[in-house]
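Check out one such.
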Amino acid sequence: MLTYTQDQLDRYFRHIGYSPKDAEDDLGRLTMLQLRHMARVPFESLTLHYSKHHRLSLDLEDLFEKIVDKGRGGYCMEVNAFFGAVLRSLGYTLINVGGRVKKGEYNGWNHMVNIVTINNTRYLVDVGFGSNGSVNPVPLEHNHIFTTVSPVRGRLEYKSLSQHTDPTNQRIWVYSTQENSSAPWKEMYCFAADMEFFPADFEVMNLSTMTSPQSFFVQTVMCMWLLLDEDDEKKEQRPIGVLILHKGYVKRRIGDKSEIVEHFESEEQRVKALERYFGIVLTKKEKEAIRGLPSELKTRCGHC
């Protein structure tokens, strides 16, 4: 099973601004790594729009080059495969498992998370679910409620689904979120914590997710990452919000307040925003690759 070398780990640590000396135990180290990763490695779909091939590789060496060497990110299967390999290289015990995102009903297998075991306790570790995702390791406990980025809360339940044909004998873990303490809970995705998915399973899932015209990632140019309280003197730097580029705008959410930072009406403006807010610089060929795609921002003609 492929892991990363110590030199690669050191380069990754420098990339996310993490010092191994900052954590004292395995859970503390994992918690800090997840926060620093999510604040530096964006959850994004750019390769599906700004590349000639419009394809995504789950090869771990390709992922390292993309994330560490090129300063990019990826969607769930990319960033969770990469982060899982980092943890495995550090000696953590974990498995990669599949999930189903809920959109009306639960879709087919289209999500990936890591289940990490520390001192006989299993934790959900997901660095690839965007603004609605968990930001810390979450113990697998039924009805466990926790804060993601305040005031948003998350919840884990172990239960049957309405789509199950034999609900008496079927259970699965369900991750839900709540915008604030008075808002309704919304189920986000379910995952099979007891069934390890192999790389071949994710290759099948990845093919569908990166090629289907109905795929959110195929339809949408998006890029986001976690915002940390950089003024917090505590080493863990608590999460305070998210920065999101979605189609034609950039939005910043701090606590319960959201603001549109910038609108753009052309590809040139969006490409500049990727560099300004996320430090992502596209090559000329990458910029040209989106031409003709439904996701392209076409400059509005004032004379038309």
